[in-house]
Amino acid sequence: MKTTLLLLACCFILLGATQVHAATKFSLVEFKYDADGNDNYNRNGEYVTLKNISGKTLNLKNWIVTDNGSHSLTLPEIKLKKNKKITIYTGEGTNVTTGSPKKVYWGNGWGLWNNDHDKLTVKNKKGKTVFSYAY
Ligand SMILES: [Ca+2]
Ligand SMILES: [Ca+2]
Question: From the CA of 112, how far away is ligand 1's center (Å)?
């Protein structure tokens, strides 16, 4: 009986861990939230690179990236294959949505990511959080 309960407990723990993992579509490759020099004058020196660890191709159209404040970026149509990376830059530039590596430019007029603490969240088009990272 004791063994059965223990096994059950193990199963629940494993199940829980799997569910958490399934919700996380990305891993953080690099987060350069403190750009070299003055962030406001080096906005593309501020960037975050994420890797698709979902095991399948993700279409990022209408997925939303937010910080802990009021900034929000709606992603364009990008088919990100498994294990491929995407970099999101704070400043202006031309998005690379079909080539490689994938790049998206937020077009924000100032530095975006706080240098001390902030939180990045990615939600899919259904509004479900698929990745978040706080520092
Ligand atoms: Ca910054
Ligand atoms: Ca800086």
Answer: 6
Query: Token pair of 94, please?
Result: 């031309």
Would you say residue 18 lies in a domain? no
Between CA 111 and CA 43 the distance in angstroms is: 6
Structural domain boundaries, residue 65: 25-134
Residue 71 placed within a domain: yes
Ligand 2 centroid distance, CA of 31 (Å): 13
Per-residue pLDDT of the chain (135 residues; tens, 9 = 90+): 555 555 555 445 444 444 444 479 999 999 999 999 999 999 999 999 999 999 999 999 999 999 999 999 999 999 999 999 999 999 999 999 998 899 999 999 999 999 999 999 999 999 999 999 999
Cβ atoms within 10 Å, residue 30: 11
The count of domains in the chain is: 1
Q: Distance from the CA of 48 to the center of ligand 1, in angstroms?
A: 11
55: left (phi over 0), alpha (psi -120 to 50) or beta: left
**Of the bound ligands, which one is closest to the alpha carbon of residue 33?**
1
* CA 34 – ligand 2 centroid, Å: 4
Q: What distance in angstroms lies between residue 113's CA and the mean position of ligand 1's atoms? A: 4
- For residue 95, what is the domain's CATH number? 2.60.40.1260
Q: Does residue 125 form part of some domain?
A: yes
